[in-house]
């Protein structure tokens, strides 16, 4: 199941699209007046935001509407800021991971790498060109995520709180990304708790926690409810990442869009690997991970992960976290409509667990 299919489709999504379309129209006019190649970069950046499920914006809009919010234009503007943040983070994450494709097609860095190659650059120079363009584009998306919040039709105190939430999302994501980059330098795998903290920072805060809280803040919710939504978001987001790590090792690419052993090839430190490191099979797994992984090697690692019990433990961890998240919503100050509207997010995890 995709991260957008658990929430009902409404006209809210069209409102977010209209906000983004208007933004890019203005930005492209401005860029085109500066240089045609700069216009081209903005066109590539806009393409990065087209066709997605708008999951984070939909969390903002769903929470806002379920709490009785009526200024849908203001909500759509906040929602658009999270879509630009997401765009910035995935563009930069691809640079960090030295990836030039996403879902089987060239990403922004890949498009500029191809451009440089076509113009005669060496492979190394072409990769540098692609990564450089991606850094610039990601910076533009990030800066304008903040700009959206300055335009929200809300009182100054609310705009300040919304800005604080977006800042929290950026700071947490940067911390998680850094921990992810540095983790492979340690010869010993991280503990499960360390992996969960990294996942919370890198993904759960910006993808679940802060969009939920932003919608609630804009709707004027009590602080108690805002904090509960944040807790729910952090836990369900971490559960999603744990389940997604299973996809990175066992997934069917034709169903998930994610290479079935991509995380193994990249040596990613996940809960799955942490559990395996505690078992006798680890020595062989570590030996295989240290070499240039082939499909046959990956198949052997998967067998060892199953034999070690790591796969079953990871499945249980994701299920336990999901249950904990849903328990947060079962509190008297959480409106029933909001509880019913957000509970389907648990299907993100359970479907992912089917890999």
Automatic annotation (TrEMBL):
Family that this chain belongs to: Belongs to the FPP/GGPP synthase family.
Record protein name field: Polyprenyl synthetase family protein
One Pfam family this sequence matches: polyprenyl_synt
Cofactor(s) listed in the protein's UniProt record: Mg(2+)
PANTHER family the UniProt entry points to: GERANYLGERANYL PYROPHOSPHATE SYNTHASE (PTHR12001), SHORT CHAIN ISOPRENYL DIPHOSPHATE SYNTHASE (PTHR12001:SF85)
EC number in record: 2.5.1.-
Domain of life: Bacteria
Alphabetical UniProt keywords: Magnesium, Metal-binding, Transferase
One GO MF term: transferase activity
InterPro entries xrefs: Isoprenoid_synthase_dom_sf, Polyprenyl_synt, Polyprenyl_synt_CS
């Amino acid at each position: 199941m995709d991260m957008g299919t658990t929430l009902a489709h409404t006209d809210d999504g069209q409102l977010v699209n209209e906000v983004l379309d208007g933004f890019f129209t203005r930005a492209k006019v401005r860029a085109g007046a500066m240089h045609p190649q700069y216009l081209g970069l903005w066109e590539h950046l806009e393409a990065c935001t087209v066709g997605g499920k708008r999951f984070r914006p939909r969390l903002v809009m769903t929470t806002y509407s379920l709490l009785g919010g009526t200024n849908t234009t203001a909500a759509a503007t906040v929602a658009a800021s999270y879509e630009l943040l997401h765009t910035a983070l995935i563009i930069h994450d691809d640079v960090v991971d030295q990836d030039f494709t996403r879902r089987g097609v060239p990403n922004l860095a890949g498009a500029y790498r191809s451009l440089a190659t076509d113009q005669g650059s060496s492979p190394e120079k072409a990769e540098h060109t692609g990564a450089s363009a991606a850094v610039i584009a990601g910076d533009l998306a990030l800066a304008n995520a903040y700009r959206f919040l300055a335009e929200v039709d809300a009182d100054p105190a609310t705009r300040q709180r919304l800005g604080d939430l977006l800042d929290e999302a950026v700071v947490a994501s940067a911390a998680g990304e850094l921990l992810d980059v540095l983790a492979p330098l340690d010869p010993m795998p991280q503990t499960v708790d360390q992996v969960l903290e990294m996942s919370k920072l890198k993904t759960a805060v910006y993808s679940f926690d802060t969009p939920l809280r932003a919608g609630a803040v804009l709707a004027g919710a009590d602080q108690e409810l805002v904090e509960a939504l944040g807790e729910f978001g952090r836990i369900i987001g971490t559960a999603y990442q744990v389940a997604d790590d299973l996809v990175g090792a066992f997934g069917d690419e034709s169903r998930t869009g994610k290479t079935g052993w991509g995380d193994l090839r990249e040596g990613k430190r996940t809960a799955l690997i942490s559990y395996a490191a505690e078992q006798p099979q680890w020595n062989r797994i570590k030996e295989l991970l240290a070499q240039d992984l082939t499909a046959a090697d990956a198949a052997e690692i998967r067998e060892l992960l199953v034999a070690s019990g790591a796969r079953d433990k990871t499945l249980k961890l994701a299920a336990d976290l999901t249950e904990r998240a849903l328990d947060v919503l079962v509190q008297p100050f959480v409106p029933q409509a909001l509880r019913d509207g957000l509970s389907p997010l648990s299907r993100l995890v359970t479907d992912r667990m089917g890999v």
